[in-house]
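User: Quick sanity check before I run a bigger batch. Here is a single chain. Can you write out its predicted 3D structure?
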Amino acid sequence: MYFLVLLISMVGAKVWCMTDNSMLSRATVDDSAQIANVHHVAWQAEFAKMLPSDVVNKMSYEFCESFWQEYFKKGDILNETYVAKIGNKVVGFVAFIKKNKDESEVDKIYVDPNYQGRGIGSVLISYVLKILKERGGKRVILTYSP
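Assistant: Done. Predicted structure follows.
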């Protein structure tokens, strides 16, 4: 997993640089509407290329909004979400689940299509890997499926 992330970072043509108006932080309930929007637009943009429209249309903004409201309401300590913001706008997020003391799974990673290709996804993954390594994690699973 670490090799894959390093490889992605090295071949990226553009690199997102943290500036005074950009930041990475743990997501809060106040971010839920913006996370839902990124989730919706990125999912629609990516999976419209490979799935039938009736399947794609099921991932509506309302569905995403409900999912994230419930996510924050549960407050599950095994799940964490971090956001990339430019100013006050969420432009990407990564969510992971702690499976056990050694292993976590990146459950979701999405970047607003208008901000893709700038290295934001790589920065989010690197940030999560750093956090998990500091906590003694040994393995991170990353899956990709619609």
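Confidence is low (pLDDT under 50) at residues 1-16.

User: Great, the batch can go ahead then.
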